[in-house]
UniProtKB/TrEMBL annotation:
Signal peptide: none annotated. Pfam families: CMD. This is Carboxymuconolactone decarboxylase family protein. It comes from the Bacteria. Residues 41-87 form the Carboxymuconolactone decarboxylase-like domain. It comes from Mucilaginibacter dorajii.
Amino acid sequence: MTRLKALNPDEATGKTKELFNAIQSKLGVVPNMMRTMGNSPALLEGYLNLSGALSHGKLGAKTGELLALAISEKNNCDYCLSAHTYIGEKLVHIDAEALNNARSANSADAKTAAILNFANVITTKQGMVSDADVNAIKEAGLTDGEIGEIVGHVALNVLTNYFNNIAKTAIDFPVVRAYNSVEA
């Protein structure tokens, strides 16, 4: 049972209606997470702005989806695992094995594996990483800008993971459960 109400896009008004219209025109639908975030237009706009900015970053869409899966698995967010598995497969064309491996911060590509591992370290240590952690990601070939983008992806996904776990957002994608899924 959901804890926060998903707004009906047809009944939305003001800034929320404006944001829903933009989402609808881009995606063809307003997903339940965004419908629920619409209760706070400031939150929805902030999410959309950060997500949009990161989508133009150097890490790229594929790495962004893999990061979302690694972070969502760490945070036991079934909504985000479901959404990013679907997006990764259908829109970004990532194979099922790579999607599944990302959930454990693994990748056949060494640089991608380092990125996913660093995101897990950030999440586990709540940002309090060591010099050795930062040196390891730099040794994997990441620039300071790319490291910043990883932090941005972690922040974005922690936001959506926590939001969906608190809201108990109804999953409107093929359901994927976290390995250690918990019902609160």
